[in-house]
Automatic annotation (TrEMBL):
Molecular functions (GO terms): ATP binding; kinase activity
Protein name from the UniProt record: Pantoate kinase
Keyword Translocase attached: no
EC number: 2.7.1.169
UniProt-listed PANTHER family: PANTOATE KINASE, PANTOATE KINASE-RELATED
Lineage: Archaea, Methanobacteriati, Methanobacteriota, Stenosarchaea group, Halobacteria
Length: 309
């Protein structure tokens, strides 16, 4: 018996540094690297609409109360036999996807995404939304998939859209994940820094993940591999932040507003770095407040992605 509606929470994830690894299969594509999962995250509600199959409707789509779609969410839903749209990315016109071949016979679902975090600013919101949609759709439609299978579905959807490489596996784990080997569960490998912390962040705007991942990633990948070696030799939070700062400089990804904030935190005696890939600075403890910024504050998420009542 299907529960017909379900809600999932998925933590945000700020990547401190990463290297990009592409493979033929999306499940084997991913990143190595490390970052922090956050108690600020994404809540996804999925409900079966009750609309009969085959009428072309995919159901309603909302992001923070307004119309909107995220491509990785649509692909994750389609993989679970919910009506999702290959053409639904990037706009508010979810209904336009109804003509996508092979997908009109999925079960129509209403999907509402609510994010504590801005989209496109380096918090892995697209990956979180895809994983939340997979967890909630599996429950609402009684698809009987395991956690690893749902993480793989969301990972493949995110990688396929070019909006992320390692957020989904990190968000599934929670804590401070180290992505030792790239890819979905069963292929990739995770470790973590055993640490709890308050985290502050300020966002100055978006940075297109698709554009960076679609360009030449050789320099950032070399810098990311160096940073990972360093962190694995000394898996502690201050080393994570220091390796992140060096990565941002070496990979030439640092943007001026973030550089200024990171320097200000350093001058005030704190630890900060840039969130990949966004115009966002994050700091441990009260680093940004102490430097005179008015940041958002949360904590490292201890639990990882989960269904909620
Ligand atoms: N208001 C919005 N701003 C930015 N992206 C949006 C918005 N609504 C939907 N999207 C979609 O969400 C995805 C954002 O992906 P990405 O840039 O990787 O962000 P994040 O870092 O939050 O994961 C893109 O696929 C984009 O088309
Ligand atoms: C850095 C990024 C490739 C993208 O992160 P975001 O812009 O937050 O989707 C991430 O997925 C990673 O592999 O570490």
């Amino acid at each position: 018996m299907s529960r017909e509606r379900a809600t999932a929470f998925v933590p945000g994830h700020v990547t401190a540094f990463f290297s990009a690894h592409s493979a033929e299969r999306p499940a084997a594509t991913g990143s190595r690297g490390a970052g922090l999962t956050l108690t600020d995250g994404v809540t996804v509600r999925v409900s079966a609409t009750g609309t009969s199959r085959g009428d072309g409707s995919v159901g309603a789509r909302e992001i923070d109360g307004g119309p909107g779609t995220i491509g990785a969410v649509e692909d994750a839903l389609a993989a679970l036999g919910a009506a999702g749209g290959a053409d639904a990315a990037g706009g508010g016109d979810a209904a336009g996807s109804a003509d996508a071949p092979g997908e009109t016979d999925g079960v129509p679902v209403d999907v509402a995404v609510e994010s504590d975090l801005p989209i496109g600013a380096g918090f892995g919101v697209s990956g979180a939304a895809a994983l939340g949609a997979a967890l909630a759709a599996n429950d609402a439609l009684d698809r009987c998939r395991s956690e690893n299978e749902l993480v793989r579905i969301a990972h493949e959807a995110e990688v396929g859209r070019g909006t992320g490489l390692g957020d989904v596996v990190a968000q599934a784990r929670g804590g401070v994940p180290i992505r030792v080997e790239p890819g979905a569960p069963g292929i990739g490998e995770l470790d973590g820094i055993p640490a709890a912390a308050r985290v502050e962040y300020v966002t100055f705007g978006e940075l297109s993940t698709e554009a960076v991942l679609g360009g030449d990633t050789a320099a950032l990948t070399a810098a990311g591999e160096d940073a990972l070696d360093r962190l694995r030799a000394d898996p502690r939070l201050p080393t994570l932040l220091d390796a992140a700062r060096e990565f941002a400089r070496e990979a030439d990804l640092l943007v001026p507003e973030v550089a200024e904030a990171v320097d200000a935190v350093d001058a005030a005696g704190g630890e900060a770095a840039m969130a990949m890939l966004g115009r966002t600075a994050f700091a441990l403890g009260t680093g940004l407040s102490d430097a005179g910024y008015d940041p958002e504050a949360c904590r490292v998420d201890a639990a990882g992605a989960r269904l909620v009542e």
